[in-house]
Recover the amino acids of this structure.
């Protein structure tokens, strides 16, 4: 039966040090919460390029194609001849395509954010409100008692203000 | 620049959340006035116009465009600096943007809403506005995407959507801070608004990537929006409007007016929301420098417009130019030159650019100049096209003047509501600019 340990830190460098030591000691179930984005935490936890970029790319491509298709479809559905000019006119339709590229790019990026970050979170998860103010919170999943003792030692040695056992999803 | 004492992380939360949660009588008085003015000057005249028809405006046979359209351009322009500046400064990693970008983005959003209202007011029959959207209707009629007006519909819809998402996503971590600091209904609402944000490394990492993509997408969008608005005019073949320089002219004017708008909003937020520790002299000075640069570009484009008109040798163009420089609206033209090309040069003096009051006055004068510019473009071109027997004259009616005044109240009402619902200064981004919390330091 696994348990979760939560450590609260006042200082960023101590928090990062605890995170690094836990990761090096083989703890994989780590959640780091902070009031500001910490790029060092991303590196330790192994977050590289975000998959959000694939959503953005897909959105822009779909937007470009559908924008142009929409302009063409409306032009041929309601044919409006003007001085012998072509019904499907490329330059103005490219402007519609351009706008739709951006619109779909933004909407798909938003979708990507939700899919990748797992938000909105429908269930309550382990959280300490101070981590949105001025504290750095670390939650580590421990598989057994020995493991839990090791994690607790690392967190306390790194300089945590407090460590506690918590129930719930990480 | 040691003009302030750096706040702690907890103080940032306390100061910003206090501005949302503690509401004094001054705020209610201001909101009440804004709503009343919006009702009396904007909505009642608009309903009157809907009742009696578009004849209630000063528009006539040769002047089919009037103040509504010039206001539309003005408000679209004012919207430009917020999102655009925020996005450019985010991409270039300029940390000074962090305290001011939220209110600048809000300005974008509400200017756009105000501009969209003018799209409804201008054509008269607002109940047919859905004809501009490509949806099936009983007449089997589809919008003509070859028209710049349809480009406009697409561009503004996209801009409004993208700007709303941009400001919302940047606010999610701050909504979580409001959630944690509140109780009851407010807590429930902000739990929904914040999507259950906890500030995990995964969430920050994903938000960082998504936000950068939003910024990258929004920059070309903002440039395209005002270029497209300019094509509404430039593609019309009307003397005085049919210029290739119109797109950069409009985009520059938009950023210029928007930056001045940010200075005005910054002054008010600093003074009335007690953000002295966050909105500082460095913001004023940097925006001041930007205003000088934009003023110079704007002046250059104006000179180019005069030169190309003269160089064209077209009698129609020259007549339109002469009317603009010496006709009935000439005083307004020269007032525009004074406020937008001459007055901003005062910012070159350090004493001026570091004084909040002077910068407030200059920013307001710039926007008066820009409002005049938009009016002149509309009022001195359409009624004076080609042959003298087709010449007319345009002067706004009392309904149009009231609606123009009312639009400012609509904007301020939306902004006043905003500052009580969304932290006007970004909590987490301001914290990023503070000294990091390190034991070793």
């Amino acid at each position: 039966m696994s348990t979760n340990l939560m450590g609260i830190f006042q200082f960023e460098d101590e928090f990062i040090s605890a995170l690094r030591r836990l990761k090096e000691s083989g703890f994989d179930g780590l959640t780091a919460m902070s009031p500001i984005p910490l790029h060092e935490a991303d590196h330790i936890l192994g977050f590289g390029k975000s998959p959000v970029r694939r959503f953005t790319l897909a959105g822009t491509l779909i937007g470009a194609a559908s924008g142009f298709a929409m302009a063409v479809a409306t032009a041929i559905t309601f044919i409006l001849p003007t001085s012998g000019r072509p019904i499907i006119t490329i330059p103005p339709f490219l402007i519609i395509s351009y706008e739709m590229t951006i619109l779909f790019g933004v909407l798909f990026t938003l979708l990507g954010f939700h899919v990748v970050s797992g938000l909105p979170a429908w269930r309550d998860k382990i959280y300490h409100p101070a981590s949105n103010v001025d504290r750095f919170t670390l939650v580590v999943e421990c598989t057994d008692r020995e493991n839990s003792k090791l994690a607790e030692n690392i967190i306390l040695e790194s300089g945590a203000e407090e460590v506690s056992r918590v129930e719930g999803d990480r | 620049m040691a003009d302030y004492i750096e706040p702690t992380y907890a103080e940032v939360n306390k100061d910003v959340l206090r501005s949302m949660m503690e509401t004094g009588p001054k705020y209610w008085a201001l909101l009440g006035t804004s709503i009343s003015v919006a009702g009396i000057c904007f909505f009642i005249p608009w309903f009157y116009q809907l009742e009696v028809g578009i004849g209630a405006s000063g528009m006539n046979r040769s002047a089919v465009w009037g103040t509504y359209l010039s206001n539309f351009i003005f408000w679209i322009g004012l919207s430009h600096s917020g999102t655009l500046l925020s996005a450019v400064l985010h991409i270039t990693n300029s940390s000074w943007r962090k305290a001011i970008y939220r209110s600048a983005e809000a300005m974008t959003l509400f200017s756009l809403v105000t501009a969209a209202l003018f799209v409804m007011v201008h054509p008269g029959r607002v109940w047919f506005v859905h004809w501009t959207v490509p949806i099936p209707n009983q007449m089997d009629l589809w919008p003509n995407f070859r028209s710049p007006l349809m480009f406009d519909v697409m561009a503004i819809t996209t801009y409004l959507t993208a700007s709303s998402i941009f400001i919302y996503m940047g606010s999610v971590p701050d909504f979580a801070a409001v959630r944690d600091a509140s109780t009851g209904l407010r807590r429930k609402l902000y739990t929904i608004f914040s999507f259950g944000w906890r500030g995990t490394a995964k969430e920050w990492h994903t938000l960082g990537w998504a936000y950068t993509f939003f910024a990258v997408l929004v920059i070309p969008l903002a440039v395209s929006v005002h270029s497209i608005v300019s094509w509404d005019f430039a593609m019309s073949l009307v003397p005085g409007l049919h210029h290739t320089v119109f797109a950069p002219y409009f985009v520059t004017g938009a950023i210029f007016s928007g930056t001045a708008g940010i200075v005005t909003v910054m002054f008010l937020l600093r003074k009335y929301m007690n953000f002295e520790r966050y909105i500082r002299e460095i913001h004023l000075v940097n925006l001041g420098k930007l205003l000088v640069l934009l003023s110079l570009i704007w002046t250059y484009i104006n000179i180019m417009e005069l030169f190309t008109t003269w160089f064209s040798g077209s009698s129609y163009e020259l007549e339109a130019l002469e009317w603009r420089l010496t006709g009935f609206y000439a005083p307004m033209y020269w007032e525009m030159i004074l406020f937008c090309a001459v007055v901003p040069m005062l910012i070159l003096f350090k004493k001026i650019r570091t004084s909040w009051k002077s910068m407030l006055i200059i920013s307001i004068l710039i926007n008066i100049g820009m409002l005049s510019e938009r009016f002149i473009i509309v009022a001195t071109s359409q009624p004076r096209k080609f042959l003298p027997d087709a010449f007319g004259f345009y002067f706004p009616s009392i309904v149009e003047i009231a609606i123009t005044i009312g639009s400012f109240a609509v904007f301020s009402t939306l902004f006043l509501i905003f500052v009580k619902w969304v932290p006007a200064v970004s909590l987490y981004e301001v914290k990023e600019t503070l000294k990091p919390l390190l034991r070793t330091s």
In short: Chain B has a mean pLDDT of 90. Residues 34 and 413 of chain B are 5 Å apart (CA to CA). Residues 9-433 of chain B form a domain with the Formate dehydrogenase/DMSO reductase fold fold (CATH 1.20.1630.10).
